């Protein structure tokens, strides 16, 4: 099993480039950046446990693809990815160009974590009706796949439509970078099977029977990666036994000393897991 980290790349914490160099030097395999274009001040949509309190990092992130470019430029082996890109808030033609550009500039090291998100006001501010967000997500992913794949791409859907466009560069990874479908909602496995390379859920106990369900339904190879994994060797062993390809843990958005302490705790859990025969 491989290991990585996730991070909200905020302007007042350790920067994306220095962080990427650090985690590459320390042997992590991947770095995922979260995305929020903004946070609506109304705060009508509850967060997490149902409260309206939202951690400060959510409204202070750099642009996702700017941060990814800095991380890619600072490293040579590290996989860099979105964890997750809120595709329903983005123009698919522009996003396809950004994905292909980061993949090209990184030499084929990009992983495209995607999802619809949870903040209803944030979606509406981008013109997306939350009631149809999953349909929008699917069409935008399919449209981007056409752009990456075809020399002269077109797409005709309910929410996305364009005729005969040229868009270059194409991604280094063919036919496109891995598409990691985030989420744990009731229909997420349908989306993984429809257009995903892998399922990319947040960790909780409920994912284990669903991993088995995904395997039983899949007619092609589909990986599972997990983000927000705890620094617990027993959990890492269980993920390994379930066939999870990579486990990643969030690091705090903080100065370097705080980030390093959190990374050391994650590394210690990995070392304990490996010492128990799971590595």
Q: Can you put this structure into words, describing what you see?
A:
- This protein is α/β, with parallel strands linked by helices and 279 residues long.
- The protein has a single domain, classed as Luciferase-like domain (TIM Barrel), CATH 3.20.20.
- 38% of the residues lie in helices and 18% in strands.
- The longest helix has 20 residues, at 256-275.
- Helix 2 packs parallel to helix 3 (92-105).
- The model has no long low-confidence stretch (mean pLDDT 96).
- It is built from nine helices and ten strands.
- It has helices spanning 16-25, 64-73, 92-105, 120-125, 133-149, 188-195, 207-217, 233-241, 256-275, and strands at residues 2-7, 30-33, 79-86, 110-115, 153-156, 161-165, 179-182, 198-200, 223-226, 246-250.
- Strand 3 (79-86), helix 3 and strand 4 (110-115) form a beta-alpha-beta unit.
- Strands 1-2-3-4-7-8-9-10 form an eight-stranded parallel barrel, surrounded by four helices.
- The termini are close together.
Return Rg in Å.
18 Å
Name of the CATH architecture = Alpha-Beta Barrel
Strand share of the residues?
15-25%
CATH homologous superfamily designation: Luciferase-like domain
Output the structural class.
alpha/beta
Largest sheet, strands/sense/barrel: 8 strands, parallel, barrel
Summed over residues and divided by their number, the pLDDT gives a mean of 96
Outline the low-pLDDT stretches.
none
Give the beta-strand count.
10
Sum up the structure in keywords:
oxidoreductase, 279 residues, SsuD_RutA_monooxygenase, alpha/beta, eight-stranded parallel beta barrel, TIM Barrel, FMN, flavoprotein, 10 strands
């Amino acid at each position: 099993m491989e290991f990585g980290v996730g991070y909200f790349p905020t302007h007042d914490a350790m920067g994306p480039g220095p962080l990427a160099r650090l985690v590459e030097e320390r042997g992590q395999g991947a770095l995922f950046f979260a995305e929020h274009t903004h946070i609506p001040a109304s705060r009508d949509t509850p967060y997490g446990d149902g409260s309206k309190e939202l951690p400060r990092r959510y409204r202070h992130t750099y642009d996702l693809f700017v941060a990814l470019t800095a991380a890619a430029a600072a490293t040579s082996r590290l996989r860099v990815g979105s964890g997750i890109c809120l595709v329903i808030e983005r123009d698919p033609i522009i996003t396809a160009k950004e994905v292909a550009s980061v993949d090209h500039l990184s030499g084929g090291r990009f992983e495209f974590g995607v999802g619809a998100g949870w903040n209803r006001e944030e979606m509406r501010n981008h013109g997306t009706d939350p009631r149809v967000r999953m349909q929008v997500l699917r069409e935008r992913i399919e449209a981007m796949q056409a752009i990456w794949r075809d020399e002269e791409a077109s797409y005709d859907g309910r929410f996305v439509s364009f005729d005969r466009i040229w868009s270059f560069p194409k991604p280094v990874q063919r036919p496109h970078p891995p598409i990691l479908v985030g989420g744990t909602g009731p229909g997420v496995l349908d989306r993984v099977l429809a257009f995903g390379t892998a399922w990319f859920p947040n960790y909780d106990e409920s994912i284990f029977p669903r991993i088995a369900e995904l395997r039983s339904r899949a007619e092609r190879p589909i990986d599972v990666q997990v983000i927000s994994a705890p620094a617990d060797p027993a959990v890492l062993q269980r993920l390994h036994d379930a066939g999870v390809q990579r486990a990643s843990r969030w690091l705090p958005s903080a100065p370097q000393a705080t980030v390093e302490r959190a990374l050391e705790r994650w590394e210690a859990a990995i070392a304990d897991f490996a010492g128990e025969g799971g590595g």
